[in-house]
Each structure stands twice: as structure tokens, then as C-alpha cells.
Amino acid sequence: MDLYPFIGKKIGLFLALALLLSGCAIQAGPPSSFSANPSQSSAASEAPPYHITWTMYQNLPVPSDAEMVAYVEGKFNVDLDIWNLENNKYEALLELRLAQGEIPDLFRVRRHQDLLKYQRQGLLAEIPKDLLMKHAPNIMKAIQDYAPSYLDYGTIDGAYYGIPVVNPTNIYRIPVVYRQDWLEKLGLQTPETLEQFEEVIYAFANGDPDGNGLKDTYGLSIEGMNVVFGAFGQIVFADQLYFAEKDTGLVIGALEPEMKEALRYLRKWYKDGVIDPEFITGENKGGYKHLSHAFIEGRIGMTSMGNYYHWIQNGDYMAWSSNGQSATEENPSTATFNVKELTAKNPQAKVVFGDPFTGPGGKRGSKAYDLLMSFTAIGANAAKEPGKLAKILEVLDYVSANPDPDEYTSMHYGVQGKHWEWADSSRKDVIVLPPYNQIFGYQNQIGSNIGMTVPLPETERREQWAATLGLDTNGIYNALEISTPSLIQNAAQLIKLKNKAYISFITGEKPLEEFEDFVQAFMESGGSEVLREANEWRRKHQ
């Protein structure tokens, strides 16, 4: 899940956190006003002893003269070199630099399954636990207090190589979204069962819901299929292999026999012209990866793509905003991402969330992102310079988990009074000030939000709204949140094999009678070893 594309969030529990973590903060005032020139800092009167290369989440490049980066550089007397690796292409861009012999000092391991791979390649430094507790106390305390079961997930053979990045908002599953205006026109409700869902998508495909007199609409595309698989208890289409818990141990969901029955439905729907024939290439056609262009363009009437905050409609909840001067006020939330794009094309369009519908056995669910989102590691070369590893941890702790509300918020949103302001004296609600509240990715542009996510409790109004929708129930999570040696070696080819087989079954290229042949081929291509190692890990962590 992407956590940072959103700029109108409420920051909660700061005062409680300040008390909880008192004594751990680096004592310095927040950047309510400062010069972006680090040479004006007393700490920068001499050449910085450490040049630190840094990777982070970003949708846009961070300029070399970004003011918040300059502030951090001056404060810690370091030279930060932010690697501009676009999130959508992160691994490909990172691998290019690694192949050239470059290793980032602050090493973002976006896919948690890659931690073991990079460690085995000698790219990561061991992080002594006592050093971590001493120089990143606020990060570690947040993990200990709010996600203790993940504390040792970054260890390999008993040594610490990755700080677990646990995303508290991933308790909310991916929503199931419908075109409400299409449902209303066709006299239908959001479905509760697979049979009702079938009725809805056939109506979307055959009932001319857009009223243009053409047969150019469909029920669903590839992301919606995961809700169909969820009605049989599993998730199939994802960028990782989804494991599930059974009495016999961990299993790979795509291999389970009930998936054959789910495929039977999808195969029939594809034949009948209910599934978008472009589902093979996916719903997103480029750009921001959480946009369902098939839904936005009115091709399909149901999807399960993007997170809840990509589907906010006008007035879903009350949010603080600025009137452009000194006063603040509460106003209805405004449309975001998918809804914003959809209504720009069709102002009359409306969306509605539905529950995952139940299958024949009473199961239901939609895809949920792992709570363990990624790892933050230290590059191997950083450990070769005396004191550098400790300095990196100090900077990371300050920009990620500062217990002081003003400093924490400044590290995430920028300069107080310029980029953001508190809504009131309680210092709980953050207002992003004009014009930044209208600029996508402004945090990247000013160099804020360069740290890692910590699992502090979420009390923002946006998350309160998500909770009222029941998105914290019926999520299907991956039962294996780590990687194993065989998974590193075989995951890519196994995912490719799985996707090719499923697409062939859905389109009718292969008969369903060959499902067992697919399972056998999968196991012979490394699947059996992947399962064996996964269950060994499970037995050790029960």
C-alpha cells in the first residue's frame, strides 16, 4: 500500500505519543521558519563528514535544493543525496544502480521478500540491535508498542538487517466499488451473494447502463476477479504469491481445488461478453498505479483496485481546510483520485462501496495489503565508515518518529505556517495550506516525508470514515509475509506460470480439466520447495 500520496490527512495521538516517548527526542525546534541554505546553520560551518545516499517513497523527483532536505542536512551536518527512484519503477531503477556498483546508504527494500535476496548478495549491513535501540529509539519503541509481533521480522540467521515498516492503515482491505448510477438506472442493489453479483454484472454488460445505445460496457476486469476468488477463500492476481492457512499448514491459494470452481464462473462470463476483453493488460494504463482507467472511462461498472483513500467522494466526511488566510474551517471532503478522474469525465457518475459477496460455501473477502509493507535497511558500504551507521539511524529516527508533534508534522508536511498549520490549539488536525493543498506530490517537491512509516495508531478522520464502512473486516491477507531462499529463486517464474494458466482458463484457451496439470507443473517448477520452506518458517513462528 502507498501511504504518502495523500496530503490532507489528520495527524492524531501526538500529545499522547510525546508523553509515551518522552526523553527520546532530539532536542531542537521544528522548522517553523528557517533558511533553506544549510551553510547558515552553525552545524554546517565545516564540511559535512558524511555523504549519505538515501532512498525513499516518491511519486515525483526530489529537487537537489529541496528546502526540507537542506534543513535536515544543516541540523545533522550531513550531505543527503536523495536517489530519485519513481515508486512505480522502483525495483527496476534500483537494480540498474546496483548493477553499476552503487549501494544506497539508507536502503529502502520496498518488497519485503527482497530483504533476504539483497542480504545474500552482500548489499546490506548488519545493524547491531544495541545500536538500533540507542540511535533509533522512537522508531523501535513504536514497533515494540504497536506491532511487537513484527519486531524480529528483519532478522536473518539471528542478525538484524532490516527495520520492519509496518503500515497501520493496512488493517483496511481494498474496497469493492460499483457505479452507483448504473445500479440505480438498472434498478439493482449492491450484491451480497455470488448469484446476485452475476445478475449485476450481466446487467452492466447488457443493459446499456451509460445510455449511449451501444454495447460497450462490461461488468468487471482483472481486479474485480479477486473478489470472485475471495468468495472461494483465496486471492490469485497479485504481484506476489498469496499463501493461506489451512489445518494442514500453509497452502498457495491459486493451487487450491476450489479455484477451479471460481474459474468456471469467470470462464462463462468471459464467453458471454461480461468481462472486459482488455482484462489481460490490466485496468491501469500507465501513470499513477492505483487508477482504474477501465472504471474511469466507463468500460466497467465494478472494480476492487486502489485503496479506500483513492475513492473518496465529495462530502464523505468533514475535513479541515484553510480559507487561504489565517482562519481555518471544516468543510466536506472533496473527491480524490479515481472519483475525481471519473467525475471529470462524467459529472453525473457516482460510486458506492459494497461488501465482498459470499460464495457457495459462505466465504467472502477482498485483497488486503500486508501489514508488513517493506523494510528499511542500511547499505553495506555505510558500515565501513566509522560512525556513519549511527548517524544514519539518528537522521532516520528524527524524520520518521519524532515524539514532538510540531517536529513530527514538519518532517512530514514541511514548514509550519508556509506548508501547513494546526487546525486548532489541540494540535491534532493538520491543514495543508494553499497552494500546496492542490499540488499533487508537493511533499516530494519540498523534500519532506523522507523517512519510513511507523505503526502509530491511526485516528485521522479519513481512517474513521474507512472504519465506518467495515473495511477492517473481510480482508484476505497473505499468510506468508517474509521470503525464503526458494521463493527468491522461483517467485517470478511461478507468478508468470500462474498468471498465464489462469488467463488461459478464463479465455477458454485451455480446458478446465487441465487445472490439475497446471498444479503439477507449478509444483515441479519450484512450487513444492517454496511450500516446504514456507511451512518450515510457519512451524518456527507459531
Automatic annotation (TrEMBL):
Instruction: Show which residues constitute the signal peptide.
Output: 1-28
| Keyword check for Signal | yes
Pfam families per the UniProt record, alphabetical: SBP_bac_8
Lipoprotein: present as a keyword of the record? yes
| Keywords attached to this entry | Cell membrane, Lipoprotein, Membrane, Palmitate, Signal
Q: Which PANTHER family match?
A: ARABINOSE-BINDING PROTEIN-RELATED, POLYGALACTURONAN_RHAMNOGALACTURONAN-BINDING PROTEIN YTCQ
Full protein name: ABC transporter substrate-binding protein
Q: Which organism is it from?
A: Paenibacillus oryzae
